[in-house]
Design a protein that fits this description.
The protein has one domain: Alpha-Beta Barrel (TIM Barrel), CATH 3.20.20. It is built from nine helices and eight strands. Helix 2 links the parallel strand 2 and strand 3. The radius of gyration is 20 Å and the shape is globular. This is Polysaccharide deacetylase family protein. It comes from Psychrobacillus vulpis.
């Protein structure tokens, strides 16, 4: 009788773990490497997300960032722009605007296998932290790059929609991740961008993909 009782208790215990642990898993996800294998994320499932590829602009960006209100779009910024704009990076960090790294064309990471590490190290030096997400400028992600990013615990993000200059405001569907270009050669109108950001309730990348909210907490010394 005791043996049967112990067996039942053990089964209930493990059965409970089976259901409880997955429900709590999202709250204990590590800061980095949110995916389980080398891959490129391009679409979510829980809402709509706006991402901005930024390589050019200063005066208009200063006004845009100071007036920007949460929920914020996620910025993918080139290393050169970060170097040229330390004051604006400071503004973004003070407002907790999410910043990740916009790299070079995908083929360059095959030509120079050390390029990714150099860029990540430089980003950490300039911004003060390793980027959680990374995107190439041409949205090409060679297998070699995917493996290297996995080793450095950096997630790769593409998009499901690309906003072409001159087109009307895109109509996003649930799960969409929109890319907005802010380059010298291809640049979305800032008024139009502001209109888009105020037209709907947008989610962060993490909320859209995983249905969770990432939070940072200072650990007392």
């Amino acid at each position: 009788m005791k043996t049967k009782l112990l067996l039942v208790v053990a089964m209930v215990f493990f059965f409970s773990l089976f259901f409880i642990i997955p429900n709590n898993y999202s709250s204990i996800l590590p800061v980095f490497q949110l995916i389980e294998k080398p891959t490129v994320v391009s679409k979510g499932a829980h809402g709509k997300t706006v991402t901005i590829d930024l390589t050019f602009g200063k005066e208009d960006m200063e006004t845009f960032l100071k007036n920007l209100e949460a929920p914020y779009p996620h910025f993918f910024i080139s290393e050169d722009w970060i170097k040229r704009s330390p004051t604006l990076i400071k503004v973004m960090k003070e407002k907790n605007i999410p910043i990740s790294l916009l790299g070079q064309e995908g083929a360059k990471y095959i030509e120079d296998p050390t390029l990714f590490k150099k860029e990540i190290d430089q980003f950490e030096k300039l911004v003060g932290e390793i980027p959680l997400w990374f995107r190439t400028k041409d949205y090409e992600f060679p297998v070699e790059l995917q493996k290297t990013a996995w080793e450095y615990e950096v997630n790769l993000l593409s998009s499901s929609m690309y906003w072409v200059e001159g087109e009307p405001n895109p109509k996003l569907q649930k799960g969409d991740i929109l890319s907005v270009p802010l380059h010298q050669e291809e640049r979305m109108d800032m008024k139009q961008l502001n209109q888009l950001l105020k037209s709907d309730s947008f989610l962060s990348i993490e909320q859209n993909i995983f249905g969770l909210t990432t939070k940072s907490k200072a650990i007392p010394e």
